[in-house]
TrEMBL record:
InterPro entries membership: Aspartic_peptidase_A1, Aspartic_peptidase_AS, Pepsin-like_plant, PEPTIDASE_A1, Peptidase_aspartic_dom_sf, Plant_Aspart_Prot_A1, TAXi_C, TAXi_N
Active site: D115, D343
Family matches, as SUPFAM superfamilies: Acid proteases
Keyword Metal-binding part of the UniProt annotation: no
One Pfam entry name: TAXi_N
Family: Belongs to the peptidase A1 family.
Name the UniProt record assigns to this protein: Peptidase A1 domain-containing protein
């Protein structure tokens, strides 16, 4: 039926010619006039695609999305016997969105990947910062911008006895500070333990600083930020926007934050837009044009999932037909297994194998008039792929809709779930799953809504009213 088809213009230029890139974090510029909000203008970072292999970037993006999902789903629990914190971060070169923040006195500017799936804010730090395996295209690991604490008069190492040290390491942190015996000494001169952040493709480690976070209209004093001294495959810092007490929204006491992600066109354009941080109360007001669904209460049985943004996904619809996903996968259990989270740090949406197979099967049924492009599936790491040669016309693809609690529906444009791959004749579903190579690993969130599916949507995290808002927008400032 026509109303269950999404039109995909042919050709769709440059859609996957460069997936090793960073676009910008975005939102509506109209919010800049609100005295209760901070609007951050952002500059994009792009990495040119190596022309020798047109599928390399796509395979890297799919692999990074899958690795990201594995670590979001199977994170280790922080115990009282270790001096490290375990979380997961995502290299921005594989399809993330970056923001610029200023720390210190006088302020120093650093670039960060926006990540709603983790909480600590950290940057490459000190002149001795080392980054191993960071030789990405257009990145010289010896020239990575670094924050220099000695150049800031407001920079202080966080003490073990500082209550904010416990935001990251827990209330019993003094018992884990090296050389500290809280029963016989006050440990004032002993620093907060070294943090270690682990992620799918590498890690970072460093010490916690108390610093000034500087905005044009506001200075946030005593902000806890990670001073990373060593990283593996992570040439940029991470701005944690998760639910943890050490996250940027928590430390600033934000009532809501919002963005509008410019499209993954990967054409080296200079487009940029804004991230909006709202400090003052909204009084329960909704943003015009947005649909809302309540955030779901986080599982209590597994503490490592408490910083995620859970939403109640009630149904998945392909071409007007509801996919019969088992309720046990849509609803998270007390142990955190199952359910859906929203993650700006993942590129492609992840679905556990039982969910993915049902969705992919329905697409195959409704696209039976198109032949499968098996060779492209092998080369790209995505599946299913279809030959859809339509000449100079448009190709009609089954619509794809997420339905949430409260009736909110995210009816995606075709460019948000299909991508032309290698040519203008083959499209691939931009959703990943585990188990394609090796056994599947169940557990953790069953669905992770990535940023590729959020492009050209205005997205709002209303923390004051515990709800997630979204609505289609053209996110480029120039339109």
């Amino acid at each position: 039926m026509e109303h269950n088809r999404a039109t995909f213009p042919m050709p769709y230029p440059h859609i996957i010619l460069c997936l090793l890139c960073l676009t910008t974090l975005t939102s509506l510029s109209s919010s800049s006039s609100n005295p209760n909000s901070i609007t951050l203008p952002l500059s994009p970072f792009y990495t040119n695609h190596p022309s020798s292999d047109p599928f390399q970037s796509l395979k890297l993006a799919a692999s990074a999305s899958l690795t990201r999902a594995h670590h979001l789903k199977h994170r280790n629990t922080t115990t009282t016997t270790t001096s490290s914190v375990t979380t997961e971060v995502h290299p921005k070169s594989y399809g993330g969105y970056s923001i610029d923040l200023q720390f210190g006195t006088p302020p120093q500017t650093s670039s960060f990947v926006l990540d709603t799936g983790s909480s600590l804010v950290w940057f490459p730090c000190s002149s001795r910062y080392l980054c191993s395996s960071c030789s990405f295209p257009n990145i010289d690991p010896t020239k990575i911008p670094k924050f220099i604490p000695k150049n800031s008069t407001s920079s202080k190492l966080l003490s073990c006895t500082n209550p904010k040290c416990g935001l990251v390491f827990g209330s019993n942190v003094e018992s884990r500070c090296r050389g500290c015996n809280p029963e016989t000494q006050n440990c004032t001169d002993i620093t907060c333990p070294t943090y270690i952040l682990q992620y799918g493709l590498g890690s970072t480690a460093g010490l916690l600083l108390s610093e000034n976070l500087d905005f044009p209209s506001l200075i946030v004093p005593d902000f806890i930020v990670g001073c990373s001294l060593l990283s593996i495959r992570q040439p940029s810092g991470i701005a944690g926007f998760g639910r943890g007490l050490e996250s940027l929204p928590s430390q600033m006491g934000l009532k809501r934050f919002s963005y509008c992600l410019v499209s993954h066109n990967f054409d080296d354009s200079t487009e940029n837009s804004d991230l909006v941080l709202q400090i003052g109360t909204s009084g329960g007001r909704k943003t015009g044009g947005l649909s809302y669904t309540p955030f779901r209460k986080n599982p209590e049985g597994n503490s490592v999932f408490r910083e995620y943004y859970y939403v109640s996904l009630k149904k998945i619809v392909v071409g007007g037909k509801r996919v019969k996903v088992p309720i046990g996968l849509l609803e998270p259990g007390a142990d955190g297994n199952g359910g859906t989270i929203v993650d700006s740090g993942s590129t492609f949406t992840f679905m556990e194998r039982p969910v993915f197979e049902l969705v992919a099967e329905e697409f195959e049924k409704q696209m039976k008039n198109f032949t499968r492009a098996k060779e492209v599936e092998t080369q790209s790491g995505l599946s299913p792929c279809f030959n859809v040669d339509a000449g100079d016309g448009d190709v009609a693809l089954p619509e794809f809709t997420f339905g949430f609690k409260g009736g909110a529906k995210m009816a995606l444009p075709a460019a948000n779930y299909f991508s032309f791959v290698g040519s203008d004749n083959v499209v691939c579903l931009t959703i990943v799953s585990d188990g394609a190579v090796g056994p599947a690993r169940a557990g953790g969130p069953a669905i992770i809504l990535g940023n590729y599916q959020q492009q050209n949507y205005y997205v709002e995290y209303d923390l004051e009213n515990e709800r997630f808002g979204f609505g289609p927008r053209t996110c480029s400032k120039g339109t």
